[in-house]
Design brief:
- Pfam families: S4_2.
- Keywords: RNA-binding.
- It comes from Kocuria salsicia.
- This is RNA-binding S4 domain-containing protein.
- InterPro entries: S4_RNA-bd_sf.
- The protein has 78 residues and is an alpha+beta fold.
- The mean pLDDT is 94.
- A five-stranded mixed sheet has the order 1-7-6-3-4, with helices on one face. The protein has a two-stranded antiparallel sheet with strand order 2-5.
- The chain is 21% helix and 27% strand.
- A hairpin with an 8-residue loop joins strand 6 and strand 7.
- The longest helix has 9 residues.
Length: 78
């Protein structure tokens, strides 16, 4: 493990959409909240702002909403 503490979020499939991942990781309350976070540029994937709610995330990707105060979430295979 590196200096950054990650929460792990296992997924069954090879990928998950960003909006769905935000909800499953409890970084967004619902789909509308996820859409708002993404459209405002508040979401980072692998350290870069992501503005596509349908962006595909794969095992190894790291999802973060810096303003939330919650730790980053690493996508892992279930």
């Amino acid at each position: 493990m590196s200096d950054t503490a990650y929460e792990e979020m296992p997924i069954r499939d090879q990928m998950i959409r960003l909006g769905q991942a935000l909800k499953l990781a409890n970084l967004a309350e619902d789909g509308h909240h996820a859409k708002t976070l993404v459209s405002e540029g508040a979401v980072q994937v692998n350290g870069e702002a992501e503005t596509r709610r349908g962006a595909q995330l794969h095992p190894g990707d790291v999802l973060e909403v810096p303003a939330s105060g919650m730790p980053p979430v690493r996508i892992v295979s279930a």
